[in-house]
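Example record

Each entry pairs one chain with its bound ligand, 2-acetamido-2-deoxy-beta-D-glucopyranose.
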Amino acid sequence: MDKLFIITLLGLLILVNGVAENLVYNNFAMLEELENFEIDDEDDVELFDIPSWTSERGGKVLVNVDSFGAVGDGISDDTQAFVKAWGTACAIPKSVFLVPSGRRYLVNATRFKGPCEDKLIIQIDGTIVAPDEPKNWDPNLARLWLDFSKLNGVLFQGNGVIDGSGSKWWASSCKKNKSNPCRGAPTALTIDSSSAVKVTGLTIKNSQQMNFVISKSASVRISKVSVSSPGDSPNTDGIHITQSTNVVLQDCKIGTGDDCISIVNGSSAIKMKRIYCGPGHGVSIGSLGKDNSTGIVTKVVLDTALIRETMNGVRIKTWQGGNGYVRGVRFENVRMDNVDNPIIIDQFYCDSPKSCQNQTSAVRISEIMYRNISGTTKSAKAMKFSCSDTAPCSTIVLSNVNLEKEAGTVETYCNSAEGFGYGIVHPSADCLTSHEKDYSFFEQTEVSQDYILNDVTEEKVELADSNNDRIVHTEL
Ligand SMILES: *[C@@H]1O[C@H](CO)[C@@H](O)[C@H](O)[C@H]1NC(C)=O
Ligand SMILES: *[C@@H]1O[C@H](CO)[C@@H](O)[C@H](O)[C@H]1NC(C)=O
Ligand SMILES: *[C@@H]1O[C@H](CO)[C@@H](O)[C@H](O)[C@H]1NC(C)=O
Ligand SMILES: *[C@@H]1O[C@H](CO)[C@@H](O)[C@H](O)[C@H]1NC(C)=O
Ligand SMILES: *[C@@H]1O[C@H](CO)[C@@H](O)[C@H](O)[C@H]1NC(C)=O
Ligand SMILES: *[C@@H]1O[C@H](CO)[C@@H](O)[C@H](O)[C@H]1NC(C)=O
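Structure tokens for the complex follow.
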């Protein structure tokens, strides 16, 4: 229905305004592409069509960390056992790297490198726990704990737990205590420079800093992953995606002290479906453009989410002075529950002890759609489109947005933001400017209301297509 709707909008637009049609059409190009943007999970099944390891069929080779001397008492250092087991599992086709259930394995910062032989399964049923003392952390691996790289066609599964034991790291963060130096801390689980990777069932918690990072990877499927860190743990992003394409996150439950999901530079074709977020800072694109850097993010869809008791709902954040662009984003079917800033674009993002100066360059933001977003806001400004004066946001489209505050009225804040709304938009988004006069067309005409408020059936679209004269006549 919604795809048809967009096409109908475009059709009507072109009918009415022959001159500006190309310009306007281009403004929607990426949004329209998003309507067709389905990352079909079934496409990848073949890659992952691996029977469970418990089955003897398929000639699985079980590589149990216990057979390599792991103790699993949570006290003995099992790092070497894991390293040896990895070396073995990686070198044998169809092997299963097994972390058995019911035990706690203490493992130091470790790189698990590929490439490996085909059809490796990493079966994590037990708990892997990090040493909790930052002072003893290997300085050569300062930013990582369990780091998997150069894998192709690998399945991570099991109902085990990856526990970063982060509390001492949090206490030593400069966010917690300004007299601490600002230093990066390890990421609990990293999948880097890999392709065709599936992760399902795992729990990642109490990471030293970010919980789960997907970097420089393609074709990644994350499902039924749960991430939890306390709401006041600093910079503990749930799932962070950087320089990666074709990534699907679904059925994930994330509660952290920072963004539940953050998507940054070099990422494209990212789909998030059925996400629970809270506590945390919401689902974010960015930050981008820090220190005058280039940030590019395109084609992102969040479809079906419950965002509860978070600082932000759906956010795009960029620093002043950056370059690049965010283009083609759709947030839809999102329920907000007591969220500080449910819908926010912040082009003045400044997560630094020093204040940030406004600059002339900025990461450009365009073709951002919010559709079927409802629920409650904590702040009166339920929607904020705070865009750079020198690089206004363009083509922000709102449809069926309804945000309420428990007590008091709600409003929309705009700075240099261009776009329009249709259907119910509450609070009203009249502060969005429209540099194309045509946009007002959608809001004013009876026909457009008709298409907006009722289901757009195939017939209606056909009508619009095949009976142009009549439609135009009705309009005018
Ligand atoms: C982990 O590595 C550090 C630094 O290399 C070392 O001091 C420590 O003994 C290792 N093991 C544990 C369990 O921390
Ligand atoms: C902050 O860190 C300083 C230096 O490490 C310490 O003396 C102080 O007690 C800490 N403050 C709090 C509130 O933890
Ligand atoms: C942004 O991503 C691109 C593409 O992956 C990469 O080449 C570039 O180095 C990245 N820039 C920054 C500042 O990380
Ligand atoms: C970014 O560019 C601005 C304007 O050219 C300059 O004043 C500033 O120092 C630059 N910042 C960094 C971190 O390079
Ligand atoms: C709107 O979003 C809510 C929350 O995700 C969902 O329950 C509902 O089915 C959606 N409505 C439509 C018409 O898709
Ligand atoms: C930057 O520009 C915005 C929008 O015009 C303005 O609200 C803000 O005060 C400016 N910030 C600084 C530090 O000048």
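Residues 18-46+286-465 form one domain.
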